[in-house]
Design brief:
An 8-stranded parallel barrel has the order 1-2-3-4-5-8-11-12, surrounded by 4 helices. About 40% of the residues lie in helices and about 10% in strands. The longest helix has about 40 residues. α1 packs antiparallel against α15, α5 packs across α6 and α6 runs parallel beside α7. About 35% of the residues are buried. It is globular, with a radius of gyration of 26 Å. It is an alpha/beta fold and about 500 residues long. It is built from 15 helices and 14 strands.
């Protein structure tokens, strides 16, 4: 009996260690407040195409759940504010919801979190008092089916839950929310669930540009802001906002609750007075955010602390009320094309989007296929470029970055440009029997990059550097996992030996 207990302890210890080894993650919020979005099946394909592994949805829509079944994508699902009354009043309501809406699709769908309520302190009807009872009933429903350790329960908040956030060390919760915050924090601590917060440095800059610099909001600041109470130095607003929550939690003696950012991002378009809402700024913010999170940088108050973050949002949502920016937070347009390029691995450089004219100022040109070319001519040209022309056409093969859209014009454009650039970017190199066209607008999209002649010349060196970086990162993960496995095997052998004594 004692040996069995020790074995269970050893396995639990391993699971905790493996979770520690995982590091921080970046997910994306899939909001659906629009009337022109693709069907969920197409969305799931888009998410997989861009190697997004973590997605937050705001309800438990059956069609969405089915679409993500067997994809390996981890889902955070939600109980809307409109359901809080029913979930808080009767345990049977939470039980029925879990039985009918979740269990039929589990574990084909990988659900890791359930958010109960959405920024309730900001909602007009303020259903704050219902949140913790509803959370408790959802947790009880999970316990009944043995899923309470695999699926964590929490609720999301806006930064408005704080009465003060600057300097970070003075972070404090609004006393008017104490009646529901204290029992909620006790719930989170007892069940090892995260405190979920929606953070938007964009709003801080937009509403107070004289006090907040744009560079500071975009992770681009070369100067530092000093917290006078702690001496901690801040180079970006995101870290300062996170630490204000850490200090608010510590002030109430909740030191073990970790923080998860369930929404953050930057709009790509806004009303005339929202001058910072541009594709360039949105790309810079999200690219720097991803790199900051993936590197496990932590914050000045919690260096190296794991921090999971979800970017808002997957699509522009045309039915959201408010200023123009509210409808332009998406990484993708409803037609599934990218609003701007974004590398979800955190390893790429921050590349600027094209200017409004779509042209570049350094004289660089690309070669693409003419839309007037016949299919036979395009296919023959692709066969030649990828064969005797010595072009590496692996990028336009299935499952590769430039395979979609799967048509001859797109595939030929990639092949034409590769040949054009590696042969001096001359007019002759873009001929292809009159089927090639020179352009001064970068045709790159999503993760499909159309290289220039300079980049092709440097490709070998950069590939070696990238390989070294990837090897270093993967080696750290492998070492951590190897240590965890070794410790588990050691413990199991020790327990078995004790059992034989």
């Amino acid at each position: 009996m004692a040996s069995r207990f020790k074995l269970v302890f050893a396995i639990s210890f391993l699971l905790l260690l493996l979770d520690f080894c995982r590091g921080s993650i970046v997910g994306v919020c899939y909001g659906r407040n629009a009337d022109d979005l693709p069907i969920p099946d197409k969305v799931a394909q888009l998410v997989q195409l861009h190697k997004i592994k973590y997605v937050r949805i705001y309800d438990s829509n059956i069609q969405v759940l089915k679409a993500f079944a067997n994809t390996g994508v981890e889902l955070m699902i939600g109980v809307p504010n409109s359901d809080l009354l029913a979930f808080s009043q009767f345990q049977s309501n939470a039980d029925s919801w879990l039985k009918n809406s979740i269990l039929p699709y589990y574990p084909a769908i990988k659900i890791t979190y359930i958010t109960v309520g959405l920024e309730v302190t900001e909602s007009p009807d303020n259903a704050s008092a219902l949140v913790v009872p509803a959370m408790q009933n959802v947790l009880t429903a999970l316990k009944k089916v043995g899923l309470h350790r695999r699926i964590k329960v929490s609720s999301t908040h806006s930064l408005g839950v704080l009465s003060r956030s600057f300097p970070p060390s003075a972070g404090a919760f609004n006393s008017s929310h104490a009646y529901f915050l204290k029992p909620m924090l006790e719930f989170l601590a007892e069940n090892q669930s995260p405190f979920m917060i929606d953070l938007y440095p964009y709003y801080a800059y937009r509403d107070s540009p004289n006090n907040v610099s744009l560079d500071y909001a975009l992770f681009e600041s070369s100067s530092e802001v000093i917290d006078p109470n702690t001496g901690l130095l801040y180079t970006n607003m995101f870290d300062a906002q996170i630490d204000s929550i850490y200090f608010a939690l510590m002030a109430l003696n909740f030191r073990t609750i970790r923080i998860m950012v369930t929404e953050t991002g930057w709009p790509s378009k806004g009303s005339p007075k929202e001058k910072a809402a541009t594709p360039d700024n949105a790309q810079i913010y999200n690219a720097n955010l991803i790199r900051h999170v993936i590197n496990d940088s932590g914050t000045p108050a919690k260096p190296g602390e794991k921090l999971d973050v979800y970017i808002f949002s997957l699509f522009n949502e045309n039915r959201k009320p408010g200023l123009e920016s509210e409808r332009n937070w998406g990484l993708f347009y409803p037609d599934q094309t990218s609003v701007y390029n974004l590398d979800f691995t955190g390893k790429g450089s921050v590349g600027m989007t094209n200017s409004s004219s779509g042209t570049n100022s350094n004289g660089t040109t690309w070669c693409i296929a003419s839309s007037k070319a016949s299919e036979d001519n395009l296919q023959n040209a692709i066969d030649w470029a990828c064969g005797p022309g010595n072009v590496d056409c692996s990028a336009i093969q299935p499952s590769q970055p430039c395979f979609e859209p799967d048509n001859l014009v797109s595939h030929a454009s990639y092949a034409f440009n590769s040949y054009y650039q590696q042969n001096g970017a001359t007019d002759v190199a873009c001929s292809f029997g009159g089927n090639g066209v020179k352009v001064d607008k970068d045709p790159s999209y999503d993760n499909c990059i159309y290289l220039t002649s300079k980049e092709i010349n440097n490709k070998t060196a950069s590939s070696n550097t990238s390989a070294m970086a990837n090897t270093s990162s993967s080696t750290q993960t492998e070492v951590c996992t190897w240590i965890a496995t070794f410790l588990l095997l050691t413990l199991i052998l020790h327990i078995l030996n004790l059992g034989n004594v």
